[in-house]
Structures are given as structure tokens and as C-alpha cells.
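call fold target=glucan endo-1,3-beta-D-glucosidase
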Amino acid sequence: MKMATTSWVGFMLLATLSIMGHVAEGLGVNWGTQAAQNLNPGVVAQLLRDNKINKVKLFDSDAWTVNFFKGMDIEVMLGIPNNQLSSLARDYDKAKDWVKDHVAKHLYNGGVNIKYVAVGNEPFLKAYNGSNLETTFPALQNIQKALDESGLGDRIKATIPQNGDVYDSGSSGPSAGQFRADIRDLMTQIVRFLQDHNSPFLVNIYPFLSLYQNPDFPIEFAFFDGGATPVEDDGITYTNMLDANLDTLVWALKKAGAPKVRITIGEIGWPTDGHAQANAKMAKRFYQGFLKKMAEKKGSPLYKDELEYYLFSLTDENQKSIAPGDFERHWGIYRYDGQPKYPIDFTGKGNDRMPVPAKNVPYMEQKWCVLNGDIKNLDKMPANMNFACSNGDCTALGAGCSCNGLDKQHRISYAFNNYFQINNQDVRACNFEGLAKISSRNASTGQCFFPIALQDSGAWKLGMHVWAGVLSGVLALFVLLF
């Protein structure tokens, strides 16, 4: 009987693995750490392995984090933040030191499988007012040169993650595509450099943003299930925004004299909160269509090669700037704690199943900060609500969002609890001039989730590096709560 039981367990394990299958070719995921509490990198590495995702894109090169990917069959893209571009552009020795300290040190037998270095992140966004125009390309050149001179240039390539707004076609179709007029000469130099060094053009494409920024954008064009009215251009029929966007880039590259540059999608995804059209249902629909398309190895009408792509993002980041919109903190396929939000099939076969959750996630005590119902005088409530939301995260309370349906008391509790958890359940963070109390009763209700802080796993401080900068830009957003 013991042998039979063992055989049965083995059979079920093999059957489960067979059902999971292999992820769609080229699939990777972004993992950002602009959160009050981040999963331990070891937990993240195991989460990727459990879901058979073998590519990860990071936004920095923190050695402690990168080291957790050693000995794993996971390709890593390191990131260089925009605030480091100037020094790397000015001083080649600093670029050499960067490659030595952040790349070469990990490349021993059984080390980290580093594939790319992302120089900057969307450095030419119009919102930056040209602040990175003089430093980005020289920094790229210096990093690639340092890689080459270290004997690493054949296996590790430097590139620049670009926002999709670096090219456009005006009011015409993709065939009118070209790089933005104000950066056209610079982009021409960059893409020819990428072509010469066999480095990919990394572009971030967000159909959701087209929908968010333009109320007249046809919503069906953001998806892949055939509901959109076709658009004709130069003899080609387009039924989704991704194909049209990619072919606009193909035309821009061709006109810039770099038609052979490989295209990689650096970020693509759909948020689940912070906007009426950001929810789990729409995210599931988007990914289901996108991953099916990728599994069929269909690039676009003009870009026939198989695409490499990185989903955005692995987990929510509750300290990201909300200047672009409240949805910015809710791009995660997983919540902050590694629990999946909706079914997603990374194989692209469309199976309706939840991805594997994170394992061994250490939570703090099961307690929440809520409104003290015994308090009758609420004169101090508006100021305390504004404080909690300005220093926490109330983006789920907006119109059409997951917690918008809460009554006044529960909205107050949500704001108080979020601030309390962000501050590591410090009892001093659940006072609010006597208006709050700590409760052992789960305050979550309906689709509105009241989080619990994670224990300090070592990743806490990593997230806190960005906390001060984000807080300085956050305003009191929820006067409308009352």
C-alpha cells in the first residue's frame, strides 16, 4: 500500500505539472519595489520559478536583491535609474566601475544569469522637460563599451526602456510612423547604435493608457478578442491597438535607418484598481487575449519575428507616484503579498486558473486600525482623513474603484488602517487624535480588501528608499470622501 500511495502521489504531481505546461515563449515580468512592504527577493524568485517564468526585469541593480537569482534559470535585466545617467555619461571610469560592481561580480559559475542592462527608464517622457536628453545616449554608449571591454558584450546588451510616446503617426495610420520631432535626431542615433550592437529596442506599450487618456478611444481596440471595428492602413487591417502601435514603431525604425533592430516589449499590462476601467475582470480579459497572441508567436502584421515581452507588473506598488493616475499603484498581477488577483494562464492557452501564489510570506499580527465607533464628535475627522490618505494609500476609494462602495465609517477605517499597516502596525499610527482603535476583527468587506503589513523580511528597507520622495509629491486627495 505504501508503494501504491507513493506512485499515486507521483502520478498526480506529474499530471499537475503537465496541466501547468510551459509559459508562452518570450514571457518575462517586471518586478518593482516602490512599496511600503516588499516581498523578500527569495520569495519572488521562487514565485517566478513556481509559475515557470524565466525572465525578470528589475528597476535597479541592488546587489542584495540580484543575488537571490543566482543559480536559477531566470534571465535578469538590471536597471539603472534616471538619476544615475548624468554621472555615467560624464565619466567612463564610473561606467566601468558600475559594470564591475553590478554585473561582473554576479557572473561566476552558478551565479546570476544577467542578459540586459536597462539604461534609464522612459528618459524622454515629455513630463521630464528634456532633462535627460544630453545624458541618456552617452550613458548607454559608456555602459555598452564597458560591457564590451570586460568581455561581456556578446552575452549582455545595454538598451533604453522607452515610452511609446517617443514615436507617433499623428492622425494617420501606422505607415506615417516616425520618431517624435523634438527627439528625432537623437533617436536616430540611438536606434542605429542598438542595431550596430545587436541590442533590442525596448518599448513600453499600454493600451489601458490610450483608453484612460482619450475618452473617445474605442475600448474594444484595447483588447484582442475581435470586437473592435477594423482600421485599414496601407493595405493592412488592424483590429487591436498593440499591432497598430508595433507597426508604427516598425515604420519609425525603418525611416531612421535601423530596420533590423529587434523589438522587445519592456512593459505591458492592465491595472486592477484606481479607475473605473481598472479592475480584475478587464485585466483578465486583456492578458488572456495578449498571452494567447504571444503563444501563437504572432508579432504584428509588419513585425514577423517572435516577441520577447515583460508583463507589468508582478506585484502592486503602493508608493508609486500617482501623478499619471491613481491606477499607478495597482498594476500587479499579484497583490503586495504575492496573492493572485485573478485567473491568468501564462501558457497562453486560456485556461481559467489562478497562478501559483507566493509561499512562506510572513505577515504581522491579524489586527486592523478602524474608526472608534464610540466617538461622537467627528470635527477632527476631515484633517485626520487627509493626513492618512496623504501619507498612506487611498487610491482604492475613488469613483468606480474597489472600495468606493463603502459607507462613510468604513471609508474612514480603510484610510486609517492603510496608514497603520504602512507604518508597520506601530500603535502610534492608530490614534488620529483619539478617533481610531485597533481591532482583531477583519475589516475587509465585499470586494474591498483591508491589508495587513508584512513582517520585516529584509526587503522592507529596500522599499523605504523611495518613500520620502514619493510622499513629497502626494497631496491630500480625498476631500470628496465626505
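return ok
The first strand starts at residue 27 and ends at 31. The domain at 21-329 is CATH 3.20.20.80 (TIM Barrel).
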